[in-house]
Every structure is written in C-alpha cells, then in structure tokens.
Request: fold
Amino acid sequence: MRNGIWNQEMECIKRPDLERLQLERLRELVDYCDRNVEFYHKRLEKAGVTSDKIKALSDIQYIPYTTKADLRDTYPFGMFSVPKKELVRIHASSGTTGNPTVVGYTREDLAHWAEQVARLTVAAGASEESMVQICFGYGMFTGALGLHYGLEKIGATVVPTSAGNTEKQLKFMRDFGTDTIVATPSYCLYLAEAARDLEWPMEDYQLTLGLLGSEGCTPEMRTQIEQRWGGGFFATDNYGMSELNGPGMSGECRMRNGLHINEDHFLCEVIDSSSGAVLDPGSSGELVVTALTKRGIPMLRYRTKDITRIDYEPCACGRTTARMQKIIGRSDDMLKIRGVNVFPSQVESALIGFHEISPHYQLVVRRKNFADHLEVRVELIDGSLLKTYGALESLQKRIHDRIKTILGIEVKISLVEPQSIERFTGKAQRVVDLRSQKEIN
Ligand code: DLL
Reply:
C-alpha cells in the first residue's frame, strides 16, 4: 500500500492501459462463456458473437444483455460454469417473489472479491488499525462475508456481530472500542437512536467510520446519521450486488464525490432502461455491468436496474478509476404517480431538514379512481404535537408544499407517533405498494 491506496497499480492506472486490459479480459470472458455455459453459448451463437469479433470495447454492444429473469429461469445452477468440486462458496439473494438468484464462487473468485473489497475499505479510510464491527447478517446475503474477507485482507480486526441484537451490538461497540461499523444506512441510524435510548453516554463510543451500503442513502440522510453518532463519524457509500460478487464493485473514497469502480474487474455501461440503447458517457440511466474476472457464475452485460451516472474524470484522491454517482433508485422502484416519475430518494431528500420529524418514513402507494396516489408517512419526534392541532396542520402543510415543489405532484402527508414506523436491521423497506388491493373510490 502506498499513499493510502491499496493497489496503486490498478487504482491509479492510466485509462489507455486500463482499456487495453479490459478488452483483453472481455475477449477471454466471451470465449470462456461460450465454451463453458450452455446458456451463453446459445445466446452468443444467436447473436453471431465470438471472442474474435470483439476488436474494441465498444463491440460489447453486440453481446446480448443478461437479466435477473435469466438467473431465475436457470435456478439454481444453470448459469454456473464449473463443476461443483471447483466451487468453494454459494450465496443467494433473498428473492421476495419467485426463485432466489443463486451465485457461486471459485477459489479465484473469492480472492478477487477480497481484493476488490480491500481496495474500497482502504479508500474509505479503514486500515490494519481498524476494529470493525460487521452488522450485516451473516448467511446467504453477500454483505457480511464479502466485507469480512476484504477487511481481514487489509489486516483490520473484524468483529462479526451479524445483524440484530441491538443492545449486545452496542455493548460490544462500546466495550471493544469499535471504530468502524459495517451496516445498512438505516440500521446505522437505528443503532444511533438505540444508543441514545440506552442512556450510556454517546462519548463512550469511538466510532469514526461507517462503511455503509446495500441500500440507497441520500446525502441528507447521511448527514443525519453522522450527526447522531457525533462529530468524528464519517460515512461512505458502498455498492454491489450478489450477481457481481456482492459488495466490492464500487465505493466512496474520502472525497465522497462518487463511488470508485473497480474497473479492472467490472466493465460498466449506462443504458436507457426502456429502449435498451447504450447512452453516451456521463448520461444518467440504468447501469449494466460485465464482470470481467468472475468465473463461478460469469456475468455478461448484466442489467442491474439501478439508475446512476458515471464520471470518468480522475479524482482528487489520486485514483483514476471512474466514479458512479450515488444510485438514485432502481428502475423497478420508480413510482409513476399520475404521470410523474418519483424515486423514494427524492422524497427522502425533501423530508430531511424538518426538525420536528425523525428520518424514518414510509411511502404508501394506492390506486384510487384509476390513478396512483402517494401517502408519505412520517414520524414525529414529539408525540404531543399530535394533540396540538394548529401546529400539526402547519407542519403537515410545510412538508406537503416542499414535496410538491420538488416533485410537482400532490401527496398526502400523515404524521404518526414517535417510534411507530418499523425499524430494520438489514435493508429498509420504505415503499408499501397497495396498488394490487381492491380499488378505493
Ligand atoms: O446489497 C451487496 C452489498 C452488500 C453492497 C453490502 C454493499 C454493501 P444484493 O442483496 O444482491 O447485494 O442487492 C443488490 O441492492 O442492485 C441495489 O439496488 C441495492 N444496493 C446495493 N448497494 C447500494 C447502494 C448487496 N450503495 C441491490 N446504494 C442493488 C443504493 C444499493 N442501492
């Protein structure tokens, strides 16, 4: 490690050298998929693509996209490329509907994965001095074990508390002098609240770094989380998905002006999610990723459904890798409210800043008179406000007006009792979709 950069050679690589490496790896990958996965063989054959047709990175456009539905249709191992004896780990994503997506890793995949996570955790400020509490659930979810091995690789001390058991979490955090936490932003916020409620002085905690991820978090929400943990706490955003190993695809450095992509492992494109057309560099759209080095279950042009934009300018931190902007939402999470596209993250940004409400909220979508209606449920900090009619009405109106200015649509604001909105130890579920229920008029 030099200048606080884990892998100077790859993280500060010159773009022409990177592109040469990506092209070489892409050709190898196409050839590998063609030879080892029946699913890809058929797709590539139909599209008339062989590795020798890939002469430039832009020739990737001839390769068909892969989707989550492809993984589900080939459940559980249909897209794996190696016999079981070569697999050393399996993970799966929860899959609330239908088959979960199952992913497998060879020994080399795990080594690459740990390297990817090592780079990002160092970029965020972790080191061999760090005492890191991993509050992601250990199990089929990739978050915990992914961060675990990357952090061990850099020599940090890992405390694998897993998710939940909040009081015990806080006790270890305080007694061990944990300085780094790995969690979803929503759980990190909840832990801060619980810490305050326990009435142990906040000064007893030594948290200075949050490696947060696995769900969206607006800059406004991040400020709330940082303020709750107190002055020295600095949180970074980390992105990934099980189909692309898990965490480790991209993460923020101390500049926090985008998430550095491990581009020698992941080749990214941004497309228009409705037409599938590839967009020019710098445009916002759906992220499509080709995992250049992954072999257990290779991924060619995987449609993530996550909406972002990629910035190719070198960063002030010294790294030259491209940075993706924070995910603004998933194309399938986008609500269409009377013709207007609404991402939950826009509502989150609008809500934070009202000192009378907590950062916990829920969006309820209903179908009424053949149109979608949005109710925003927000939690009051002081429940006695519910009895103070004038104050309550005025707050409701101010929140309503701010959201209307930002989104341009009417929403119903419901102010609810303190602590009444569900807390999550993993990914928060902020949207309650009641549109399939019987229509109300
Ligand atoms: O959430 C992997 C991960 C674990 C990333 C820990 C970072 C930290 P999945 O469970 O497969 O994998 O969910 C992937 O979660 O397509 C995004 O929609 C969302 N997501 C992940 N990270 C972020 C983030 C892990 N930083 C899906 N911001 C992705 C916004 C995120 N959304």
